[in-house]
Amino acid sequence: MVKLLENTFRAVNIGLVNEIALMCHKMNINVWEVIDAAKTKPFGFMPFYPGPGLGGHCIPIDPFYLSWKARQSGFECRFIELAGQVNASMPAYVVERVAEALNTVKKPINGSRIHLIGVAYKRDVNDLRESPALDVIELLAKRGAALSYTDPFVPELSHGGQVMKSVELATALHAPPDCTVICTDHSVFDYAMIAATTTPVVDTRNALQQYDAPTIFRL
Question: How many whole angstroms separate alpha carbon 173 and alpha carbon 195?
Fold first, then answer.
């Protein structure tokens, strides 16, 4: 129960900040700046950050297990399940942002070459379990995108019965894709190179926070 509380605490707070991110986008507010300002308070605030969804073997799963177990005792975990719904919706929101980014260059998702940067579920690991990048790949593929990815920690992955292999970042950006999506902010990536691209970049991790260009679309 202690472990379930710990992971549910994180999942619920990530769900909250993901919802705040969705709201801030509608209100044209930079959610990352809001969080940075809020965390200057010396007490009473713990920063959580939005992203493309939850990954790993614990945080996406444990809250639903807890909710299922509670339901067996006649208790409904409405708060926990709502957070789960918000977090589960984030990959679809990322695809919406990709569509918005491509729209600025008068291109649809269908037929566009979209390159994902990072597919592991979190920074600097090779773990693909429950990675939101896999959901983003699936959703983009259903809409007709031609997909590729770069992740030095994940040399290859299987999608739709086909094996995709990681492409060197410099190679991928040499002939720029129609849109680039940063799903996992590995520390080994050359973010200056990514920011310098002339095509849209959807940054779901605020990895390009020090760069400001009209081609950068933050979560």
Answer: 11
66: phi then psi, degrees, rounded to nearest 5: -60, -45
First-to-final CA distance of the chain: 33
- For 87-103, letters b (16+ CB in 10 Å) and e give bbebbebbbebbbebbe
Confirm whether 58 is a catalytic residue: yes
The pLDDT, as a whole number, for residue 182 is: 98
Mean pLDDT by 10 residues, the chain (219 residues): 92 96 96 96 94 85 86 90 93 97 97 97 94 96 96 91 92 94 97 95 97 94
Q: Are 10 and 83 in contact (CB under 8 A)?
A: no
Domain annotation for the chain: domains and CATH numbers: 2-88 (1.10.1040.10), 90-218 (3.40.50.720)
Among the options 24, 58, 77, 183, which is catalytic? 58
In which element (H, E) is residue 180 found? strand 179-182
Neighbours of 108 (CB within 10 A): 13
Closest CA to 32 of 208, 214, 215, 213: 208
pTM of the entire structure?
0.92
> What is the per-residue DSSP string for 19-56?
HHHHHHHHTT--HHHHHHHHTTSSSS-------S---S
Count other Cβ atoms within 10 Å, centred on residue 183: 30
